[in-house]
Amino acid sequence: MASHRFDPNFTDNVINAMGPKTNPRFRQLMTGLIKHVHDFARENELTVEEWMAAVQFMNWAGQMSDNKRNEGQLVCDVIGLESLVDEITFTLAEEAQDIPTATAILGPFFRADTPFRENGTNIVRTPAKGGVMAFMHGRVVDFVTKKPLVGATVEVWQASTNGLYEQQDPEQEEFNLRGKFKTDNDGRYSLYCLRPTPYPVPDDGPAGKLLHLMDRHPFRPAHIHIIALCNGYKALTTQIFDRNDPYLTNDSVFAVKDSLVVDFVPRKDDPQAGLELNYDVKLVPSDEA
Amino acid sequence: MASHRFDPNFTDNVINAMGPKTNPRFRQLMTGLIKHVHDFARENELTVEEWMAAVQFMNWAGQMSDNKRNEGQLVCDVIGLESLVDEITFTLAEEAQDIPTATAILGPFFRADTPFRENGTNIVRTPAKGGVMAFMHGRVVDFVTKKPLVGATVEVWQASTNGLYEQQDPEQEEFNLRGKFKTDNDGRYSLYCLRPTPYPVPDDGPAGKLLHLMDRHPFRPAHIHIIALCNGYKALTTQIFDRNDPYLTNDSVFAVKDSLVVDFVPRKDDPQAGLELNYDVKLVPSDEA
Fold this sequence. Notes:
The structure is a homodimer.
Chain A: H1 10-16, H2 24-43, H3 48-64, H4 71-78, H5 81-95, E1 121-122, E2 133-142, E3 153-157, E4 178-182, E5 188-194, E6 199-200, H6 206-213, E7 219-220, E8 223-229, E9 236-242, E10 261-262, E11 265-266, E12 275-278, E13 281-283
Parallel strand pairs in A: 1-5, 2-12, 2-13, 9-10
Antiparallel strand pairs in A: 2-5, 3-4, 3-8, 6-7, 8-9, 11-12
Helix pairs in contact in A: 4-6
């Protein structure tokens, strides 16, 4: 029963227009989406001008997107949707007794073509003004048995101290601050990187406009992106956050989880880095394993 | 109170991130939008893959949009949103005792630069295969006093018999099947046009993909678009539909209203047209008048 004063059959008519060949999951999603979008429009008595502004906004996001930038994703991120979908995924995995390292969003700056590097490599290929070097190392282990996983892949990426990832910044060498590492016979990976610094998400497009209209700052707390992969284990996408960061409690894309906050500690007798981060990654066996 | 098993504070955190300088109406809309989008994601346990497919879909719509095509608008149209917003607008006008000619959606094929033509002009500038000519005429009147309005503008546009508007079809002369007309001293306008024919909305992009996935046809019932304007009166955007059309009850963009269905009747002794449509437009005085 409709609890509003508009045409009580309108939404059902739109939903019922779906034909019998619609995929059941797609039908479920479209039914939910149409209901929520229509309820939103009715509850707020959305005007033609407001709706058209939203259409132009979304078209703008698409027009700004290309291989190097996904503005539609960023718009979702600033309203928390990517982090929420991640939390749903993680909660369902928990309920299925898969309690791996907590996940976090992929974000729009992942590159599928990042090269492998030797363990111990410095991923800082272009000097970063004011950057502080850190030695990041740890093991990839089986979540259940705690045994180290040999030949697992750990992929990391981070922004430079100017707040830009390499594909956003012509001054940075290609694949600067990115690398894939294979774990050795003890399941260990290691690299030199920057202590991450907070940065604003790109705010020269629709997502930035939205943040401005919502009177919000665009900053993300300092973090390093990680993807870990190993045959027979579920892929893990996450981010780790520096405990000292001032934006830890108000991430512009709502991705921080307590279990992903890490401590950089002083490192002695290493001319390459004054800080150290020891971070172990726990992977869950896949269903097929 | 959250009625789900996910983080109960997540959505409030996103909403409460809005700062004090947010425009109140914008805050209301974003609060509603964030709640509905988050509820949709939780209720359907949206996966990362499904969410990313939706992001790519919306980016695709933006990338396909330009001066001649608004695919984002068309995506809204096929889930009924433009027609719903129109119905909300019309219902609010009714409640305010403004009961003009029923409104209908603008659609994505309006052109702001359509030229004026003399009354009685034939807007069929490029021959239309299988087209049936009609003489369309009527008056623009004050909704309250019923008096004719002199010097009002009636703008019409329609698709050709191949289902294409002129800006979609390089074979059609520019501004074919479009025109603006000024009412004469009796408030009358007139033109020769085609009896409209049903056509599919463009289904070579995201909106067409969506229709296909929902197992729906892309057809719109035969219609003529109308915008009527007069100083001191509220602008009217509407469409009129041919009663004989087979798609009248299942318009792919849900725009049909009973009061907008019209009858083409035989016309005698006119070598230019065998059909006639008499259609009066009623305009409501604007608040300032």
